[in-house]
């Protein structure tokens, strides 16, 4: 073997060994899970968007908080301190260290995966559209707003629906950003906007808890026709990228929970059904 080639192979081997040593040192320094165990408390952030997360009689509940409560218990962490925030403020709060986990039905996207570490997905949901009673504008897809300049659609700030509308080609002037689902619902009822783009479970929950007398779900509804949409709608918990040990422990406990017989019952209590259980797909595949 030529001397130059031997030197190159030796250099590559040394680099690989150094990388492994550095990673091992990082893993040893990662006290994210141990720190929470010692403190016996975990800080979890959420945004009000039922049925993913909301307040009821002063208690934080919803599909994601209830899953989080069971996971925290399985991890041996007795106390949860909740922090409510606007949806688009949750990732900055996580990055700043004010919370340890986001439990808000956050969809896994490539963009978000550059900022947070996602758990494995716990549900997969479809898109929907809330419109005025009788659907006077005849809206049956998000694409309709891209072809009609007189149609305006509300989206929750920081939610994936805003990205979908922009990808479809809806002009910025027709996308009305609101802070939460309740504000969007009011905007549709009052006629300020023609529709509210939301996940199907959120709109089903609105109808379940408070009959939609002046609004309704657009039906039929055509799902967005986008290449990346097949990976959209998988929701998970979010953890800081540096907290690898916490992520690993969380995923183990979450996986055990999802294998339990009452996991589906936990979800159906909040309006989800078996069709919204995640398929056999990983967060890594969804983030690529």
TrEMBL record:
It comes from the Bacteria. Pfam families: SBP_bac_3 (PF00497). Gene3D superfamilies: Periplasmic binding protein-like II. Residues 41-274 form the Solute-binding protein family 3/N-terminal domain. Keywords: Signal. PANTHER family: ARGININE-BINDING EXTRACELLULAR PROTEIN ARTP (PTHR35936:SF17), MEMBRANE-BOUND LYTIC MUREIN TRANSGLYCOSYLASE F (PTHR35936). This is Extracellular solute-binding protein family 3. It comes from Candidatus Moduliflexus flocculans. The lineage of its organism: Bacteria, Candidatus Moduliflexota, Candidatus Moduliflexia, Candidatus Moduliflexales, Candidatus Moduliflexaceae.
